[in-house]
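Sharing a chain and its predicted structure for anyone who wants a worked example. Both blocks are below, sequence first, tokens second.
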Amino acid sequence: MHLMNEALARAHCTEQLELAKREQRVRRIMAARRMDRRAARAAQRASRLASAAVAMRTRTY
């Protein structure tokens, strides 16, 4: 009986560890996607600002 309880406990721990690893992987993927979107928005913002700066320079001449 003791060995069965030990085996069940080990199986439960393994299952919990796998679940934690899966959740951590999902969090990392979501964070990477969030950072990717943030970088894309920053690039768009920089592009718009550069275009606006060029437009303002050409208007003053």
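Comments welcome. The chain has a mean pLDDT of 93.
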